[in-house]
Design a protein that fits this description.
Strands 2-1-4-3 form a four-stranded antiparallel β-sheet, with no helix packed on it. Helices cover 24% and strands 32% of the residues. It is built from three helices and eight strands. It has two domains: 33 residues, no CATH class; 57 residues, no CATH class. Bound molecules: zinc ion.
Amino acid sequence: MIYHYNCPSCQRLIAVEHTADAVVCERCQSTAGRVWGFHVSSSMKEHFNHAVRDYVSNQRDFEDKLKMAAEKNSIATGIDHEYVPLTPAEMMDHEHLKVDVGAGNEHTKRVAERTR
Ligand SMILES: [Zn+2]
Protein backbone atom coordinates (compact mmCIF):
# COMPACT_ATOMS: atom_id res chain seq x y z
CA MET A 1 0.00 0.00 0.00
CA ILE A 2 1.35 3.38 -1.02
CA TYR A 3 0.15 6.58 0.61
CA HIS A 4 0.43 9.92 -1.11
CA TYR A 5 1.15 13.29 0.43
CA ASN A 6 1.17 16.64 -1.29
CA CYS A 7 3.53 19.46 -0.36
CA PRO A 8 1.61 22.78 -0.13
CA SER A 9 4.75 24.83 -0.87
CA CYS A 10 6.38 23.17 -3.88
CA GLN A 11 3.49 20.91 -4.94
CA ARG A 12 5.79 17.91 -4.74
CA LEU A 13 3.94 14.60 -4.55
CA ILE A 14 5.43 12.30 -1.96
CA ALA A 15 4.74 8.58 -1.92
CA VAL A 16 5.44 6.66 1.27
CA GLU A 17 4.85 3.05 2.20
CA HIS A 18 3.63 3.75 5.72
CA THR A 19 0.77 5.93 6.83
CA ALA A 20 1.26 9.03 8.93
CA ASP A 21 -0.70 12.17 9.71
CA ALA A 22 1.85 14.20 7.81
CA VAL A 23 5.28 13.84 6.28
CA VAL A 24 8.04 16.40 5.81
CA CYS A 25 8.81 17.41 2.22
CA GLU A 26 12.36 16.36 1.32
CA ARG A 27 12.79 19.34 -0.94
CA CYS A 28 11.57 22.31 1.09
CA GLN A 29 10.95 20.83 4.57
CA SER A 30 7.32 21.90 4.58
CA THR A 31 4.75 19.65 6.15
CA ALA A 32 2.91 17.77 3.45
CA GLY A 33 -0.67 16.70 4.00
CA ARG A 34 -2.25 13.41 3.15
CA VAL A 35 -3.81 13.04 -0.28
CA TRP A 36 -6.80 10.80 -0.18
CA GLY A 37 -6.71 8.80 -3.36
CA PHE A 38 -9.27 6.29 -4.45
CA HIS A 39 -8.76 3.32 -6.66
CA VAL A 40 -12.23 2.69 -7.97
CA SER A 41 -12.11 0.96 -11.31
CA SER A 42 -15.80 0.97 -12.09
CA SER A 43 -16.27 4.73 -12.04
CA MET A 44 -14.05 7.73 -12.61
CA LYS A 45 -13.63 9.29 -9.21
CA GLU A 46 -10.62 11.45 -8.63
CA HIS A 47 -7.67 9.17 -8.08
CA PHE A 48 -3.96 8.92 -8.57
CA ASN A 49 -3.28 7.08 -11.82
CA HIS A 50 0.13 5.51 -12.08
CA ALA A 51 0.03 5.33 -15.86
CA VAL A 52 -0.11 9.11 -16.19
CA ARG A 53 1.64 9.78 -12.83
CA ASP A 54 -0.93 12.38 -11.95
CA TYR A 55 -4.34 12.82 -10.43
CA VAL A 56 -7.26 12.47 -12.76
CA SER A 57 -10.76 13.57 -11.84
CA ASN A 58 -12.82 12.65 -14.88
CA GLN A 59 -12.66 10.76 -18.12
CA ARG A 60 -11.69 13.73 -20.26
CA ASP A 61 -8.95 14.81 -17.88
CA PHE A 62 -7.67 11.26 -17.82
CA GLU A 63 -7.57 10.93 -21.60
CA ASP A 64 -5.72 14.23 -21.99
CA LYS A 65 -3.11 13.21 -19.45
CA LEU A 66 -2.87 9.77 -20.99
CA LYS A 67 -1.94 11.30 -24.33
CA MET A 68 0.70 13.48 -22.69
CA ALA A 69 2.12 10.48 -20.85
CA ALA A 70 2.35 8.48 -24.06
CA GLU A 71 4.12 11.34 -25.84
CA LYS A 72 6.56 11.80 -22.98
CA ASN A 73 7.35 8.10 -22.93
CA SER A 74 7.81 8.08 -26.69
CA ILE A 75 10.28 10.94 -26.50
CA ALA A 76 12.10 9.55 -23.47
CA THR A 77 12.52 6.03 -24.82
CA GLY A 78 12.59 6.57 -28.58
CA ILE A 79 9.78 4.04 -28.79
CA ASP A 80 6.30 5.04 -29.85
CA HIS A 81 3.84 4.54 -27.02
CA GLU A 82 0.13 4.65 -27.26
CA TYR A 83 -2.14 4.28 -24.27
CA VAL A 84 -5.86 3.88 -24.39
CA PRO A 85 -8.34 3.75 -21.54
CA LEU A 86 -9.77 0.38 -20.62
CA THR A 87 -13.50 -0.02 -20.51
CA PRO A 88 -14.88 -1.60 -17.33
CA ALA A 89 -15.67 -4.77 -19.32
CA GLU A 90 -12.09 -4.97 -20.58
CA MET A 91 -10.81 -4.50 -17.05
CA MET A 92 -12.96 -7.38 -15.87
CA ASP A 93 -11.68 -9.48 -18.72
CA HIS A 94 -8.04 -8.44 -18.71
CA GLU A 95 -6.67 -11.87 -17.91
CA HIS A 96 -8.49 -13.36 -20.84
CA LEU A 97 -7.32 -10.54 -23.11
CA LYS A 98 -3.78 -10.80 -21.73
CA VAL A 99 -3.79 -7.06 -21.28
CA ASP A 100 -1.06 -5.85 -18.99
CA VAL A 101 -2.85 -4.02 -16.22
CA GLY A 102 -0.06 -3.65 -13.70
CA ALA A 103 -0.62 -2.39 -10.20
CA GLY A 104 -2.22 1.02 -10.36
CA ASN A 105 -2.78 0.86 -14.11
CA GLU A 106 -6.35 -0.22 -13.85
CA HIS A 107 -7.62 2.34 -16.33
CA THR A 108 -4.94 1.77 -18.88
CA LYS A 109 -3.57 -0.72 -21.28
CA ARG A 110 -0.64 -0.38 -23.59
CA VAL A 111 -1.87 -1.12 -27.06
CA ALA A 112 1.10 -0.42 -29.26
CA GLU A 113 4.82 -0.40 -28.76
CA ARG A 114 7.11 -0.45 -31.72
CA THR A 115 10.60 0.65 -32.54
CA ARG A 116 10.93 3.49 -34.98
ZN1 LIG B 1 7.98 20.95 -0.74
